[in-house]
Amino acid sequence: MNTAFHWRGALWLACAMTLAACGKEKPAAQAPPATEVSVMTVALRDVPIVYDFVGQTQSSQQVEIRARVNGFLDQRVYTEGAVVKAGQTMFLMDPKPFAAALDAANAELAQQVARLKTANADLARVRPLAARNALSQRDLDDAVGKQQAAAAAVEGARASVTNARLNLGYTTIKSPVTGVSSFAKKQAGSYIDPSNSLLTYVAKLDPMWVNFSLSENEVLSSRSEQESGALKFPPKGAFDVLIVMADGSQFPHHGKITFADASFSAETGTYMIRAEVANPDGTLRPGQFVRVKLHGAERTKAVAVPQEAVIQGPRGQMVWVVGADNKAQQRVVDVGQWTGDNWVIRSGLKAGERVVVSGGLRLAPDAPVKAVEAVPGQKAPAAAAAASAPGASTPAQAAKGTESAGSKP
To answer: Which CATH number goes with the domain that contains 100?
Structure first.
């Protein structure tokens, strides 16, 4: 009887618990709150394109300073590496042999002039006698021939004097241009002949040339896009050329393109282009590697989104798109050129769609969002909220803190 009583009590207790559970309603599942994001509406517009190349500087006039006569080098009279002016003396050669040669040439000229005077006097005596038939025609012809030979000898001697005077002048070696000098390849006391006549270089610094190359694919692609109207170049190729130094600083003077090679290089398959830039202070030196940025081209009717809108995903580069139902979806895009702070999107987006600019890191597919139209130059709502939160740090402070943490042992 005790066992039956216990079983009945347990059964009644179970029934009571079941009825109590059935009487309570199941709470409804709450929808996740909408995430506030900053969006922009895609629109077709003309986007300025900046082409970026690696270039190398070259002197606009680099001159070899060579000896033009054979002889001993007496003296170097310039400072190696210094700026020399046009007409400034750089080397002196031993002038004594050339001075002696000039004296000999002058003496030869004087001798030939004396012979010419004698020939002229003989001809003056022979001509009237031949006119009266006192002398034969042969005598007259001989006198004329001697006078003409003497005149030619005078001209030859005069040319020898000029040549000797030039050779003497060549012993003083001057710079033909204003520029920076190189080191002396020959020192005083060296014998100079045609096999070792190179003494140094002088490189003109203002203006400076900057050479860079385009690949064949780049040339063909830009040409086809220009013909289709998708790409617009400035009239007559008048690009604005900016030079960026190795430390990232921008060279203060802008340049322009002055030369494009007529053919592709057979060795590299590239097309060489030259820009010219003013260099009054000599900041640029020949042989430097710099970055060349060409401004002036535009991509017409293009789609461009800010850099922070593009994220790297497992399927490549993607963006978050907000649909008409205010839900986020990921979209794979084909990214083109970088222009300013924007990416040009070749495919994957169309005009009228809304792209998430800020706050995309907190999104998931089909997540509800509260879209706030982004205003150019204004901080995104998500970023502003994070910056104003208690204890939040600025990017510079965070970077500083990271460096401090990394320096600890």
So the answer is: 1.10.287
For position 20, what pLDDT does the model report? Answer: 52
φ and ψ of 15, to 5 deg:
-65, -40
CA angle 338, 340, 343 (to 5 degrees): 35
List the chain residues with pLDDT less than 50: 1-5, 7, 19, 23, 379-409
Q: Which of 388, 383, 376 is nearest to 340 (CA)?
A: 376
At 341 the pLDDT is 80
In a domain, 90, yes or no: no
Do 202 and 180 contact (CB within 8 A), yes or no?
Answer: yes
Its domain, for residue 307, covers 36-44+302-379
Listed residues 136, 170, 204: the one ending a domain: 170
Q: Helix or strand or coil: residue 196?
A: helix
Cα angle 229-233-234, degrees, rounded to a multiple of 5:
135
How many structural domains comprise the chain? 2
The neighbouring-strand residues paired with 209 are 58, 276
Distance of CA 176 to the CA centre of its chain: 28
- Quick check: is 155 in a domain? yes
Domain presence at residue 359 = yes
331 and 339 in contact (C-beta within 8 Å)? no
Contact 93, 73 (CB under 8 A): yes
Residue 119 included in any domain: yes
Q: What is the pLDDT of residue 10?
A: 54
For 297-351, write each residue's pLDDT tens digit. Answer: 888 888 888 888 888 878 888 888 888 888 888 889 888 877 778 888 888 888 8
| pLDDT tens readout for residues 160-218 | 999 999 999 999 999 999 999 999 999 999 999 999 999 999 999 999 999 999 988 88
Q: How far, in Å, CA of 301 to CA of 349, rounded?
A: 13
Give the C-alpha separation, 264 to 270, whole Å: 5
Structure-token pair, residue 12: 């009644």
Query: Any idea what the CATH number is for the domain that residue 341 is in?
Result: 2.40.420.20
Encoding tokens for residue 97? Answer: 């042999």
Give the side-chain half-sphere CA count within 13 A for 145.
Answer: 6
Domain boundary among 120, 142, 170: 170
pTM of the model: 0.68
Residue 61, C-beta contacts closer than 8 angstroms, at least 6 positions apart: 177, 179, 203, 204
Task: Tell me the pairing of strands 35-41 and 369-373.
Answer: parallel
Residue 54 forms beta bridges with which residues? Answer: 291
